[in-house]
């Protein structure tokens, strides 16, 4: 056990895996960019911040995504974050690309990039293994390095299996849509100018609405309506944060009948009005110089 850099409370490293406990306080609000020299998977062990969002910047800037309790960060890829700030207590597993290549999974992580869904992973096996790793760091026992190596390897393999199954970051189950059909649907829904209806997607795929809705749920585990709503919410967040388009203009662009309907839907998902969200996010951005601050390891579990 050794104490590493500031914020790392405990660390145990082997030739391939480094396990760390992180304990830091983020200023309120926090905004900035960071880059990791190694791949990282982190499990937040404190309450999620009121606002915690990020985006990978490997191939141009995409929309901000909510950062969840469990997230992965690629090596060498800038990540932009914005957060309401507060305490961060996390357990983190670090590894190099050589380990990815060792398992013949280099294609899963093209050019070091990861799908946006990795900012909010819903993988209970990975979370449970990271929790076990945290216990070992807090109370090390016999053959601790060997155990950390075993746990870390399991975490990496689970992540690579998850990535290998992902078309554009969506979980795939057996049956339902083909990968081509799912790719067509997700690309059409996620296109900035589109607010598709079920009829639009039916025409796109050549499937009846009934078959489409049943197959989409069977393939992804969620309804097509829920996915459209989720993507539309993410588009709304981006328009509110990154443009000066008025709320009624955003409502019209996203296919709502009026600004009131948009505001009600946004508040139901975000817990605040579009206007309040815009003010809050602009305030985070106005904290300014944080974008140039060395926050390279702080925000992995923001």
Topology:
Layout: E1 8-13, E2 18-26, E3 30-34, E4 39-44, E5 52-56, E6 65-66, E7 70-73, E8 79-83, E9 86-95, H1 97-102, H2 124-138, H3 144-164, H4 179-190, H5 198-205, H6 209-220, H7 224-242, H8 247-253, H9 259-270, H10 274-286
Helix pairs in contact: 2-3, 7-10, 8-9
Biggest sheet record: 5 strands, antiparallel
CATH topology of the largest domain: Jelly Rolls
Mean pLDDT: 81
Count the beta strands.
9
How many separate helices? 10
CATH architecture of the largest domain: Sandwich
In what range is the share of β-strand residues?
15-25%
Order of helices and strands: EEEEEEEEEHHHHHHHHHH
Which parts are unreliable, with pLDDT below 50 for 5 consecutive residues or more? 1-5, 288-302
Radius of gyration (CA) equals 20 Å
- The tally of domains stands at 2
Q: Spatial order of the strands in the main sheet?
A: 1-2-9-4-7
Proportion of helical residues = 40-55%
Separation of the first and last Cα atoms: 25 Å
Decide which structural class fits the backbone: alpha+beta
Form type? globular
CATH level 1 class label of the largest domain: Mainly Beta
Please identify which CATH superfamily of the largest domain we are dealing with: Jelly Rolls
Explain the overall architecture.
α7 crosses α10 and α8 crosses α9. Helix content is 41%, strand content 17%. β5 and β6 form a beta hairpin. The chain is globular, with a radius of gyration of 20 Å. The chain has 302 residues and is of the alpha+beta class. The protein has two domains: 160 residues, Jelly Rolls (Sandwich), CATH 2.60.120.10; 108 residues, Orthogonal Bundle (Arc Repressor Mutant, subunit A), CATH 1.10.10.
């Amino acid at each position: 056990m050794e104490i590493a850099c500031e914020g790392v409370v405990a660390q145990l490293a082997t030739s391939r895996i480094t396990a760390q406990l992180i304990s830091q306080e983020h200023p309120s609000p926090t905004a900035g960019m960071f880059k990791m020299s190694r791949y990282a998977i982190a499990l937040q062990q404190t309450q999620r911040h009121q606002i915690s969002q990020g985006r990978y910047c490997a191939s141009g800037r995409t929309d901000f995504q909510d950062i969840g309790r469990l997230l992965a960060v690629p090596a060498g890829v800038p990540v932009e974050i914005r957060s309401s700030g507060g305490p961060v207590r996390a357990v983190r597993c670090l590894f190099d690309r050589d380990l990815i290549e060792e398992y013949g999974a280099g294609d899963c992580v093209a050019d070091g990039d990861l799908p946006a869904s990795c900012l909010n992973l819903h993988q209970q096996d990975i979370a449970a293994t990271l929790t076990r790793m945290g216990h070992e760091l807090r109370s090390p026992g016999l053959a601790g390095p060997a155990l950390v190596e075993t746990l870390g390897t399991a975490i990496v393999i689970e992540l690579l299996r998850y990535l290998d199954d992902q078309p554009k970051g969506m979980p795939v189950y057996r049956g339902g849509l083909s990968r081509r059909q799912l790719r067509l649907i997700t690309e059409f829904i996620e296109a900035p100018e589109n607010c598709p209806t079920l009829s639009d997607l039916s025409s796109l795929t050549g499937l009846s609405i009934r078959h489409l809705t049943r197959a989409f749920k069977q393939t992804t585990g969620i309804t097509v309506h829920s996915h459209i709503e989720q993507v539309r919410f993410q588009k709304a967040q981006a328009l509110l944060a990154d443009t000066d388009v008025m709320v009624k203009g955003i409502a019209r662009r996203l296919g709502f009948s009026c600004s009131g309907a948009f505001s009600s839907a946004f508040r139901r998902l975000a817990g605040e009005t579009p206007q309040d969200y815009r003010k809050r996010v602009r305030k985070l951005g106005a904290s300014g110089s944080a974008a140039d601050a060395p926050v390279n390891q702080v925000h992995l579990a923001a």
